[in-house]
Amino acid sequence: MTDVSPLDLRRGARACAVATTCPYCGVGCGVLAEPDGQGGLKIRGDKAHPANAGKLCSKGSALGETVALDDRLLAPQVMGREASWNEALDLVAAKFAASIREHGPDSVAMYVSGQLLTEDYYVANKLMKGYVGTANIDTNSRLCMASSVAGHRRAFGTDTVPGLYADWEEADLVVLVGSNLAWCHPVLYQRLAAAKKARPTLKVVTIDPRRTATSDLADTHLAIAPGGDGALFNGLLARIVAQGAVDSAYVARHVSGLPEAVEAACASDLGMTGLSAEELDAFYRLWIDSEKVVTVYSQGINQSSSGSDKVNAIINCHLATGRIGKPGMGPFSVTGQPNAMGGREVGGLANMLACHLDIEEPAHRDAVQGFWVSPEMPDGPGLKAVDMFRAVEQGRIKALWIISTNPAVSMPEADRVRAAIEGCDFVVVSDITARTDTAELADVLLPATGWGEKDGTVTNSERMISRQRRVLPAPGAARPDWKIICDVAARMGWGEAFDFDGPAAIFREYAALSGVAGALGRDFDISALAEISDAEYEALAPFCWPLSARKSGGRFFADGHFYTKDNRARMLPITPRAPQSQLSEAYPFRFNTGRVRDHWHTMTRTAKSARLSQHMAEPYLELNPTDAADLGIKPAQLVTVESPAGSAILRAMVSERIGRGEVFAPMHWTGQTASAGRIDALVAANTDPVSGQPESKGSAVRIRRFSAAWYGFAIAREEITPTSRYWAKARAAKGWRVEMACDGEPEDWVEYARDLFDLPKAEAVTLLDPARGIARIAFIAEGQVLAALFAAPEPVAVSRAFLTDQIGAEADPALMSGRPGADRPDPGATVCACFDVGVNTILAAIREQGLTSVEQIGLALKAGTNCGSCRPELAALLASATPAQAAE
Ligand SMILES: Nc1nc2c(c(=O)[nH]1)N[C@H]1C(S)=C(S)[C@@H](COP(=O)(O)OP(=O)(O)OC[C@H]3O[C@@H](n4cnc5c(=O)[nH]c(N)nc54)[C@H](O)[C@@H]3O)O[C@H]1N2
Ligand SMILES: Nc1nc2c(c(=O)[nH]1)N[C@H]1C(S)=C(S)[C@@H](COP(=O)(O)OP(=O)(O)OC[C@H]3O[C@@H](n4cnc5c(=O)[nH]c(N)nc54)[C@H](O)[C@@H]3O)O[C@H]1N2
Ligand code: SF4
Ligand SMILES: [Mo]
């Protein structure tokens, strides 16, 4: 056998476009991916896919830039050294088996992910619940969708999203509550924006304590007090009743619990919403007067210690008015991860069985056990994520297998979770890279194939199942997750039950089991596909479930038929609760957290793309100008943010878009990308009592200025990791850009810079002004810039865009000034990632060419004309530029 390198193997991949699905958000866009002959992929939107009809956002368009092999895990590792698959799998099976033998099945656990494909998920769940005999398998969907699941199950008897994306386009009113759709579900946002443009009577209301890029589309933005949503929707229910807007016929036939729900609603305190009587009145009138209303909700609702109640408060209003399951109306939970929905379907949550069957229900357990012919079934729910890591901390879980998620970064009280994993007897991590905060703690690291290298299915927010298809060969020894799980199961003695020859075989079994669920009266039934051939599976076109002899596709519940014992939906009495962490003198700020436009979670993929890394290159804290002034914090200074659980150092982004007493930080930065940017270290592990979902958006924190002796900005061709107290790095087109700050000043700046860049011999160009504390040092070889450091006692005012362009280039005469010469304007921070158009360029064009619309900006600069993800920001720049123009 010849030794072909993984990259050579990739270069040889057939240049033919393959239809697959984007691996990021729950919109579930179709992607055409074609090998480019260099080991990468050319990416286009798939016009034939119903979710996106050819559109992609910035992250989807940049997929080709994230498949490079440089930091991939290419072979198994045991205790930090490379090992064969046999050695690694034998060890995993032996350790799990020993723990089960000595301490029982509940001494082991799996923590998996809504980014697994359905087939991977199915075998993981089957192994744990059916064969190991424990329900200790939970998923990062606990941090994401658990409150929606709980709300759906309490109201409908099962976890069903009643409507379809098309409903948004048909609606008269779309309410976006706790959703930053423009950044987090950009293609759905674009569909909504297009529908509104075509039919301006379509109204949009956003409900979010912050003004976001999404609010810019809204006719009305309600800056609700954090956690005020339960009271807001209770108020709506009370008004629905008071105005006689109840659909009495629907309620009489299909709904129970209305009087109790209304009584609780009438008793709740609207003051909790923080909104004025006029705002409430206008919103209530609009909602009630718009027959076709879709209420879309996301993490601003779910990630709350009363998340399930907030979900039910929303659903109550739709049930009372019968506005559910009909064209243009219904409650709509948008899912986060590409297969968050699929994971819910296969039973990835510790409190679910496969195919929406209930673990608490003996008849359901028996049916699944009979179908699996399994030796063992747990008789109740297992540990939910927060409790699972507590059990790890207490030594009750002795063997833990983490697959496709990064809990040392994304779990609340992340420092504590990291320590718990570190202290666990035996930890296995399956990932595509070893460079994660969690993978660093593993005893055994298993290399998984990633997006583009694996086959299976995912389900999006509207229940649409579509195929992810392989385009590239598996790199090195990497294997698909389903295969790794089945191989371990076989070594534990269950080879026959896990003897699948590919994802199609797993899918067939899963579809057959869904038929059993369907016969038990469950909603999730795709049994029409139980005998699908390998070739049909390969060609499977996207479809919305269910797909069975009983029903195919469409909406649920227009005619009742809920999945409760009496087939009636339940309205629940809701008593709104404030976030669990109380603000105090010691911790006076409400810590809101979430996402930015161009990064995905813990950035193991998006940080590989230079253009995705330019939009937000640093971890930051958004805070109100008055609060900043009170704290003596100037824009762009650094702040230390602390809670009782931990601390972080973040760049202050002073903004009117956030209210007083509230601050916001994105969740993306890790130990790999920043010195102190893991903001989940601060988040209290308060959970919703029903769903177990953590309150990731409601902790109490305090803020103080980080006392920096100096701030720095560095560019480098090779990756560097500074030793300064603060640093944050991001990839640039030809190297790296790094922000720095430290409390002590180095004795010799040039030596410091040499160490930083590990360039002991390169020629140094220096500009030192010790009196002013300014140091500028560039290293140049053969006329080309290798690296440079710009340091100053205040945040360094150099042009990041200009300097980033200098990496590896012939040194510009203006290099040491940190700004382009007068003949060349500074483009400013990137707004349009597709065409790399900066904020200054856009503002100058608006000013000089008198541009007044996003379309005109597109014509002038191309910005916003490809993926369109920056269009909300272009609109905001237009709005901000207009008054300035008037003043001139
Ligand atoms: N670019 C990008 N897109 C993503 C992801 C990503 O990492 N990056 N991740 C995907 C995943 S897994 C998920 S779950 C989704 C999440 O998608 P979203 O839920 O839309 O995103 P978040 O930014 O977490 O939070 C949404 C909003 O909730 C608001 N909020 C906070 N507290 C409250 C409150 O008490 N009430 C209300 N009404 N609102 C509140 C926040 O200010 C924030 O703007 O995004 C998906 N899409
Ligand atoms: N404070 C705060 N915390 C939050 C949130 C918040 O809004 N605020 N949001 C929460 C939500 S909604 C979510 S969904 C979580 C997300 O948090 P995580 O799931 O922890 O984040 P990811 O970075 O998506 O982790 C996915 C991991 O899987 C790896 N991977 C990628 N593809 C594959 C594959 O095919 N196989 C395997 N085995 N591994 C693969 C990636 O390299 C990465 O290490 O964060 C939660 N945490
Ligand atoms: S909206 Fe963007 S991230 Fe989400 S599936 Fe579509 S292309 Fe991927
Ligand atoms: Mo999520």
TrEMBL record:
Required cofactor(s): Mo-bis(molybdopterin guanine dinucleotide); [4Fe-4S] cluster
Gene Ontology molecular functions: 4 iron, 4 sulfur cluster binding; metal ion binding; molybdopterin cofactor binding; oxidoreductase activity
GO biological process: cellular respiration; nitrate assimilation
All residue ranges annotated as the 4Fe-4S Mo/W bis-MGD-type domain in the record: 15-71
PROSITE patterns per UniProt: 4FE4S_MOW_BIS_MGD, MOLYBDOPTERIN_PROK_1
One Pfam family it belongs to: Molybdop_Fe4S4
Keyword set, alphabetical order: 4Fe-4S, Iron, Iron-sulfur, Metal-binding, Molybdenum, Nitrate assimilation, Oxidoreductase
Similarity remark: Belongs to the prokaryotic molybdopterin-containing oxidoreductase family. NasA/NapA/NarB subfamily.
Protein name: 4Fe-4S Mo/W bis-MGD-type domain-containing protein
Species of provenance: Thioclava pacifica DSM 10166
